[in-house]
Amino acid sequence: MKLLSVNIGRPRSNPWKGLGLTGIDKRPVTGPVAVVAPGRKGTGEVGLAGDRVYDVKHHGGPDQAVYAYAREDLDRWEAGLGRPLANGVFGENLTTSGLDVNGALVGERWRVGPDVVLEVSCPRIPCGTFQGWLEREGWIKEFTRAAVPGAYLRVVEPGDIRADDPVEIVYRPDHDVTVALAFRAFTLEPDLLPRLLAADALPEEGKEVARRRTTR
Known about the structure:
The protein is of the alpha+beta class. It has helices at about 70-80, 130-135, 140-145, 180-185, 205-215, and strands at about 1-10, 10-15, 20, 25-30, 35, 65-70, 95, 110, 115-125, 150-155, 160, 165-170.
């Protein structure tokens, strides 16, 4: 298990249907990238040095410090879409190889390189910006049906990372709430929401959604 690339980006114009600026355009970089825990959500801060988000209301902050997506899933999308998909094209900071990102448990911890430890927090939920970036009508529904969303990560231990760094799973919590299950619960299968409360590491806003479903 390793990083194929580390991808960062600054907000750029996305002209598709007037969507304006977006930080989704992540591109691989060479050399080490510093990883730190960002400040509160709403500031635009994220975990990788040189990276930013534009939609600060919905992105960034400690629970969405880093976004990981598996190259294996990109390859499947590439075949289905009939177009090449470069590392970083889904807006991911980390493009991984050999790691089951969607099967990761919420609260699972990964050591990346010698120093950095990241914790799986929640799945990525697709938005109009993502659809516009790919310039594909119906992409939100298509991506949602596939239920391979990739994972947002918190920074537990800071440090530097770079392409080809090994990834090691150093902790797995004692529950069955995977990234894929959480995604299905938040999107097409809300009956699964009560199960998410077993995952202590789920962001508080996700827990609140699950609690509301549980108390109905």
